[in-house]
Amino acid sequence: MSLETVLSIALGVGLAAACGFRVFVPLLVAAIAARSGHLTLSPGFAWLGGDSALLALSVATIFEVLAYSVPWLDHLLDAAATPAAVVAGVVASAAVFVDLPPVVRWGAAVILGGGAAGAVQAGTVLARLKSTLFTGGAGNIAVALLELAGAALLSLLAILAPALVLVALAALTWLLARIVRARRLAARVSGHRE
Q1: What CA–CA distance (Å, rounded) separates 190 from 114?
Q2: What's this model's pTM, rounded to 2 decimal places?
Q3: Model pLDDT for residues 80-97, shown as the tens digit of each residue
Q4: How does DSSP classify residue 44?
Q5: DSSP code of 41?
Q6: CA triplet 135, 80, 169: central angle to 5 degrees?
Q7: Are 144 and 74 in contact (CB under 8 A)?
Q8: C-beta atoms surrounding 173 within 10 Å
Q9: pLDDT digit string, tens, across residues 21-71
């Protein structure tokens, strides 16, 4: 596997993970990068850099950002955003897996892209639920802003430095594994005390 292929996979996984934060922001960033010549798209994805896609993604991004700042509406959006994030993650990753044959491209997009988007989206849903539980929904706007920043920054990082995305995702996976282990250990310890 060539370095270009590995970097395109890192780019795709990074964009897909960003779709877990916000569905349309990473696609809009990719469309702008493709339009400006900073991103090479896979065969069949030239539409992403076109006028129609830029307009549609811009409008969708504005509506998505505004809707997530309404406390009661954010929970309704999460129900639709979870499958939409997975689909967007698959599309975003397939759009940049340039050097892969179509069957491999789509298989990798579904597994890696859809999986990354779904995992991040699950984390955002849990964060919003905890925010609602502990702040009565008042903290959800802060969570929404952090998710927006995460989507934008991860999208830009994926395009500008895809190798760093692999490092960041590995570090995040390691951190999450440590948190899960610590919680399991704490549950076992508290279970033995009773």
Answers
A1: 36
A2: 0.85
A3: 888 999 999 999 999 999
A4: T
A5: P
A6: 75
A7: yes
A8: 11
A9: 999 999 999 999 999 999 999 989 999 999 999 999 999 999 998 888 777
Q: Which two tokens stand for residue 153?
A: 């920054």
CA dihedral 183, 120, 160, 141 (to 10 degrees): -100
Q: What is the CA radius of gyration of the chain?
A: 18
CA distance 47 to 53: 7
CA geometry: angle at 33 spanning 41 and 16, to 5°? 65
Q: Render the chain in DSSP notation, one character per residue.
A: --HHHHHHHHHHHHHHHHHHH-SSHHHHHHHHHHHTTSSPPPTT-GGGGSHHHHHHHHHHHHHHHHHTTSHHHHHHHHHHHHHHHHHHHHHHHHHH-TTS-HHHHHHHIIIIIIHHHHHHHHHHHHHHHHHHHHHTTTTHHHHHHHHHHHHHHHHHHHHH-HHHHHHHHHHHHHHHHHHHHHHHHHHHHHHHH-
Give me 135's structure tokens.
């702040």
10 token code pair? 């890192």
Q: 43 — phi, psi (to 5°)?
A: -55, 135
Tokens of 175: 């951190």
Residue 64 near residue 24 (C-beta atoms within 8 A): yes
What residue has token string 């349309």? 24
Those residues with Cβ within 8 angstroms of residue 122's Cβ, 6 or more apart along the chain or in another chain = 20, 82
Q: Are 141 and 129 in contact (CB under 8 A)?
A: no
Q: Closest Cα to residue 64, out of 85, 40, 47, 48?
A: 85
